[in-house]
């Protein structure tokens, strides 16, 4: 290393290149390398933040579409059946929570009779392609502005929920996540538990399975 430095010094003494120019160039090279490294770090940070936010993107749309797909079963490839089931699902969502995010999502994509935009066939076409719900919602968001803007207020960690041991405050918090703030017919805690089960069963099939909520038997 000492020999290399000595050789460089001798070369500079004999060279026609001014020493100040050599050192200025070296400093500029170091500065450029530092700037390049900083840009890489910033880019990596931006990608990480974007990736972290991706998990919650379109969560309302994804949950509604997943529920629709589950209800369709083997008839998913039939556009007429998809539309009929979706509009029926939207009626149920509107009935349980008229101003809820899921009902407003239905309104945006044309799932309600009074929807201003009749764009429901965009959703129907995507569902019949057998794409996963996440992909369907990303495609819908390109066609219908605002599809991915709907967000649930609180993300429930269902693995930590025990409905039988939950207190009234916890049960109301779960209902609030579905934009349900009143239960006129609820008198006892068990009434709230049943309402939560009904809503989870309708709105989040995966959570229903995790909680051991069996499908409702139609009489």
UniProtKB/TrEMBL annotation:
Location(s), subcellular: Secreted
Domain ARMET C-terminal: 160-198
Keywords: Disulfide bond, Secreted, Signal
Family annotation (SUPFAM superfamilies): SAP domain
Protein name: Mesencephalic astrocyte-derived neurotrophic factor homolog
Protein's organism: Opisthorchis viverrini (Southeast Asian liver fluke)
Family: Belongs to the ARMET family.
GO cellular component: extracellular region
Pfam annotation, one family: ARMET_N
Domain of life of the organism encoding this protein: Eukaryota
Signal peptide bounds: none
Domain called ARMET N-terminal: residue spans: 57-156
């Amino acid at each position: 290393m000492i020999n290399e430095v000595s050789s460089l010094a001798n070369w500079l003494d004999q060279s026609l290149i001014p020493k100040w120019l050599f050192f200025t160039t070296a400093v500029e090279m170091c500065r450029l390398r530092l700037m390049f490294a900083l840009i890489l770090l910033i880019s990596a940070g931006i990608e990480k933040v974007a990736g972290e936010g991706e998990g919650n993107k379109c969560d309302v749309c994804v949950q509604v579409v997943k529920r629709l797909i589950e209800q369709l079963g083997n008839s998913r490839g039939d556009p007429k059946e998809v539309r009929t089931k979706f509009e029926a699902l939207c009626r149920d969502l509107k009935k349980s929570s008229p101003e809820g995010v899921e009902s407003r999502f239905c309104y945006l994509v044309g799932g309600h009779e009074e929807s201003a935009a009749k764009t429901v066939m965009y959703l129907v076409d995507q569902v019949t392609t057998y794409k996963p719900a996440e992909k369907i919602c990303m495609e819908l968001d390109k066609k219908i502005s605002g599809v991915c803007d709907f967000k649930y207020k609180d993300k429930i960690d269902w693995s930590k929920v025990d409905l039988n041991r939950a207190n009234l405050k916890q049960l109301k918090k779960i209902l609030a996540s579905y934009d349900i703030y009143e239960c006129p017919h609820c008198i006892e805690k068990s009434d709230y538990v049943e309402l939560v089960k009904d809503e989870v069963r309708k709105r989040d099939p995966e959570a229903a399975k995790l909680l051991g909520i069996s499908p409702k038997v139609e009489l």
